[in-house]
Design a protein that fits this description.
The complex is a heterodimer. By secondary structure, chain A is α/β, with parallel strands linked by helices. Helices cover about 20% and strands about 10% of the residues of chain A. The chains are: A alpha/beta, B alpha+beta. At the A-B interface, helix 8 and strand 4 of A face strand 2 of B.
Chain lengths: ~280, ~250
Amino acid sequence: MGIAEQYNPRMVDVPDERWDEAVEALCREAYENWAARPDVASLAPPNWEEFQKRPVFRFEVGDPYYAFKEDIEKGENPFRGTESGKIEFYSKLLARGPEYLATNDYPEGTGRCYGRGSLPPMAEWTAGGRGTFYSQDAEKYPLLMSTPHSMYRQHGWLYNNPLLNGNCYRHAIWMNVADAGARGIKDDDMVRVFNDIGEMLIPAYVTSRVVPGTVVLFHGGWYVPGDQESPLMPDGIDRGGSPNLLIHDEDLPTRGIGMFPSTGLVQVEKWEGGR
Amino acid sequence: MQHGFFYDQSRCYGCQACANACKSWHGLPAGPLKYLRIYEYEKGSFPDVRVHYQWIPCYHCQKPACVSDCPQEALYKEAKYGAVLLDSDKCDGCRICYDSCPYGAPAFESDEKGVKAQKCTMCVDRLEQGLQPVCVLACPTRALDFGPLVDLVAKYGNRRELDDLPSSEDTSPAIVFKPHTGRKQLVAYDTEKALKLLMRRDPLPPVFASIDEIRHIPKGVVGRGEFVIKHKSMDDLMRRTRNDEG
């Protein structure tokens, strides 16, 4: 297909038996090129053979690095982004509350965040949101769903690859023997997984390798609307196994960029309506 | 000279790289035509649970039951490497070999009657070129090895059976095993007490009604609860040799 030639031309015609040698030759060349750089060579790095025996290269640091070094050397205040211009243990910005933050760009030009949760102005312990056992929802939806990464997908990518489905991989909700037994479920039964925001039909994967009281649904599944509809899912109950449909996001803080809720409380029941 | 495989069960983690390499080298279509299968099954109950793997190609037995049972004399023992090979011109698809083989090694494309058997060739074509069988090369954990059986025995010992596998007595398979290591509880804790703590979720009802619900596992409830080596249908084979792990 010509991909190997572009991607790694030197490995194209290497037979399996010489693979390790070819890889080592590449690494060695890269190492020697690096060691020959004037700034590195002045530190006298070990040669490749010595480096193989003891793959650690220690050298004296002449001018040590410290936090905010570049700003300080330029004579700039590294904390100019905060309202007080100082390190804020109590954030004056966050104290203005989620409504202010959702309607104003701050700092100017960086855009708004639309999370509905609020982030306290000072770090404090919180009991967790609606996706944890601390939530009152745990009474109605007693199973905690976690959503680890699948080795068959890169997030949602490759979810619909036919070669990575069907005979190769069964997208299913993992549950413990005790939880399955209490609900009359056995492996490969269709189950309805639901809470107050979403609903899906998916096979059960019954195992002892899951902590009782929790279920596991590998993330990256797409929403595939099925024939069955419900007041909650007027476009069709999910058949694709998309955990996002069951995860609340109102705890996502307005300025907490980088936080992604990935757990949800759900209930599971046996589905008698066929596959 | 009899050549054979070595399988280190303690290293295998069921990634199926060997099975994919095998399919690719032999140009086999997707589906149940698998010259080698990897099985994965769990034993025990939470939290003392463990996953086991079995690697089943053709073990190229020294006393192959398939060869002696084939009414068409389609299966034969090749002389140079001791591989059990199949002459597909002679095979009439009766599947007696599948019933004879304790490991279920002969592979079939479908459940249709008359479909000819196919099987692992020990990669004799590669051996002739001085190469290793493709599955052995593909293993990322180096859990597989191949060579003259006497050399393997000298190198790895003479363990010829694994737990849960059929006895090697009648067929004398050309395979040396290293079993998985025993389960070690690295952090000492009292399982009974841990389960009791896990059970409580005041003020809500307990997570499970009794510890017995976790320990007592009725047959057929757990998907990977048992190791079945021979299959009633190709669907069953696909289901049991599929890797569902995430």
